[in-house]
Model the fold of this input.
Amino acid sequence: MVPVPALSRCLVAVGLVAALAATACITSPMGRQQLVLFPESEMATMGAAAFDKLKTDLPTSRDAARQRYVRCVADAITAQLRPGEGARSWEVTVFEDASANAFALPGGKIGVHTGLLQVARDQHQLATVIGHEVAHVVARHSNERVSNQFAAQTGLQLAGSIAGGSPQLMGLLGVGAQVGVLLPFDRAQESEADLLGLDLMARAGFDPRQSVPLWRNMEKAGGGAPPEFLSTHPSAGRRIQELSQRIPRVLPVYESARAAGRRPACS
Ligand SMILES: [Zn+2]
Done:
């Protein structure tokens, strides 16, 4: 598709699918125009179906201590979501998979691969990744991707794939790597998830300064062949630079969270 500025793409798409009652152009938490066609309840249904499929296809970790550790970090983060930012309760699953990857889906689903726990060396670093993934959901990036694709295909093909839970839809929801379809979030969505994720982790009482060593570890772990997470989430150097600039703004948020007694101790 020829690149079109987001706003005009938004308007054209609205014209194409005006019959949909839920048609809407909204502004993302970072002030970017987004086309969002699907009600959150429908996105939640898609997210839950994708998660069920992953739980069928991938082995889950039987290590109860690991499951507890990841849930401890994830719960601290999702407890900070404000009304309208996401599901009230979140299901957290650790998948037995050597790649350093994680994802969050609409409908309150979080998946973490065991390989990520080799790279995210403590609770603050794990919170960086989970915060980033939950931020994709808060900013409705899956809805935006499915909506853009729906508009581009005049809905017909994608409607079929929504019904069937296809690899294409899994990719648009952000779990393409798990089913062999690489459909990375775009740079603007990645930046939003990084910055919103940083804010979320700070609100939960995790140290936002640890985001920098996390992305350095991720880069190192890549070696010649980047881990799954980096291959779907590009430009580690630029992301570290953006995060470093943002950290002074969120440190006071972290400090007030600690002062208010939000001091997670997940291990
Ligand atoms: Zn991302």
Observations:
- Residues 236-259 form the longest helix (24 residues).
- The chain has one domain: 6-259.
- The chain has a mean pLDDT of 84.
